[in-house]
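chain below, 211 aa
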Amino acid sequence: MKFIVVSNGNICDFSLIRKVIDKDAIIICADGGARYLFKMNILPHVIIGDLDSLDEELKDFFKKKNVDFYKFPQKKDYTDTELAIEYALSKGATEIIFLGAIGSRMDHTIANITLLLPLVKKGIKAKVIDDYNEIVIVNKDLKIKGEIGEILSIIPISEKVEGITLKGLEYPLNDATISMGETIGISNRFIETQAKISIKKGNILVIKARD
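prediction:
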């Protein structure tokens, strides 16, 4: 089951949301992410969080539209986005796409990206998408589509990532090891319309970027 989590970060390209959201997906707004859907006349299924980023007018609007609310206290152990993940998992999520997860608050941005890791370990397909990036975490194998010349970067998020093999990219690798803090994986480029990434041990961030 596919879930879309819309958080309160930066979303400028509303056409991006329309491309990602499909009729079969369950839409969860993490608090202020509901503002973006309101502007687009899209109704979420659920709004979750402490609701400190939504004014009363918006709350009333969504309540009248029978949107479900799950309110939590401001002083809580989890971010609104993590609460949205827990809800999605409780409903049988097999895929979660995050919109609005990247913003000016670097602490929230980094935290939201690292939320991908436990999902990947659970076998859940998970991706962060913003106006310029698609971000996933890989711990085994990945096939990723892209346009020829498009940028693809890999960043270790384990002390060492071993057995890295890259195909379909300008700078291939074969059974390589990259340590955290090394930047050899930055700004590779597609030379085919599909790249293949595999690793034997560790976790890497894979970022398909647009300037």
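The chain has six helices and 14 strands. The chain has two domains: 2-131, 141-209.
thats it, cya
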